[in-house]
Amino acid sequence: xxxxxxxxxxxxxxxxxxxxxxxxxxxxxxxxxxxxxxxxxxxxxxxxxxxxxxxxxxxxxxxxxxxxxxxxxxxxxxxxxxxxxxxxxxxxxxxxxxxxxxxxxxxxxxxxxxxxxxxxxxxxxxxxxxxxxxxxxxxxxxxxxxxxxxxxxxxxxxxxxxxxxxxxxxxxxxxxxxxxxxxxxxxxxxxxxxxxxxxxxxxxxxxxxxxxxxxxxxxxxxxxxxxxxxxxxxxxxxxxxxxxxxxxxxxxxxxxxxxxxxxxxxxxxxxxxxxxxxxxxxxxxxxxxxxxxxxxxxxxxxxxxxxxxxxxxxxxxxxxxxxxxxxxxxxxxxxxxxxxxxxxxxxxxxxxxxxxxxxxxxxxxxx
Length: 367
Ligand SMILES: [Zn+2]
Hints:
- This protein is of the alpha/beta class.
- It folds into three domains: 3-72, Orthogonal Bundle (Arc Repressor Mutant, subunit A), CATH 1.10.10; 76-190 and 351-362, Nucleotidyltransferase, domain 5; 202-349, Nucleotidyltransferase, domain 5, CATH 3.30.420.
- Helix content is 40%, strand content 21%.
- A five-stranded mixed β-sheet has the order 5-4-3-6-9. Strands 12-11-10-13-14 form a five-stranded mixed β-sheet, covered by helices on one side.
- Helix 2 packs across helix 3 (37-49) and helix 9 (276-301) packs parallel to helix 10 (316-336).
- The longest helix is centred in the last third of the chain and has 26 residues, at 276-301.
- The radius of gyration is 23 Å and the shape is globular.
- Bound molecules: zinc ion.
């Protein structure tokens, strides 16, 4: 680790503590961060000059001195969050580091013909946000884009997105070069896993199963986001735990679990053509598919908690009993050991907070 990295890590340690304990003094910050007083004092002064911190005098002369309270100006720094799922539109939001969502909209991309056109649209959108009066008091720090494919970090390109024009494109590099801001591209489930870990810091081993236009898994292992070769993670969509008679339209094999548990498979439950009995049978089938998948993932990763989110699982409550029947049968020791399984009804928010966290993590406030 070089001097710049150490300085940045110390800055993040100070800001992290200050974010949770606004208004403390340099002396208290020194004790809490285990840094020297001169390091804390110098870094705080630099951050004050950069507009990252605010210092206010405490008017308490009874103690014979006049210390200052410090505040992290987290509402002055913004992340742009884009969520590209499917082929018709993407969602964009702006979050500050407090973290609060300040803006959201939906952008139609149904008529977009190629990647250059999409990049230009994203560039114009970011430029108009940067010019907007409501964001003039602060600064944009970075952009994160959640996709339903995989970002191949070795080849620096997207693969397997349901939006064909994105495949083969180094989206992060191209957009970053146009906007002169750091840009991160990752699959939605990874952003969700990072966010779940932030919300539940006691869990060091988390699985986040995300079902929308595709089926994906984000894994936190030993407190860190798990990544395999070239940045690929646990790619579960084409595991053969589905109906062996159904041919997968993506890979051409039979029995891929994504056909049952992504939005196209799960939305059949709300088909008006289904009879009551047909719906009941389909619920059981989907529940058991989910149960088989969760059993295998639990055995492989031995998580402390599992989160399930995404639009595909809006009927989670109805399929859960059938899923749990299978999980209990196959992984009873894990369940009786207290493995919690949570449904996350607002995974859009979780994706955005995960993106905001990725942008914050790479931010060097004193650069
Ligand atoms: Zn497949």
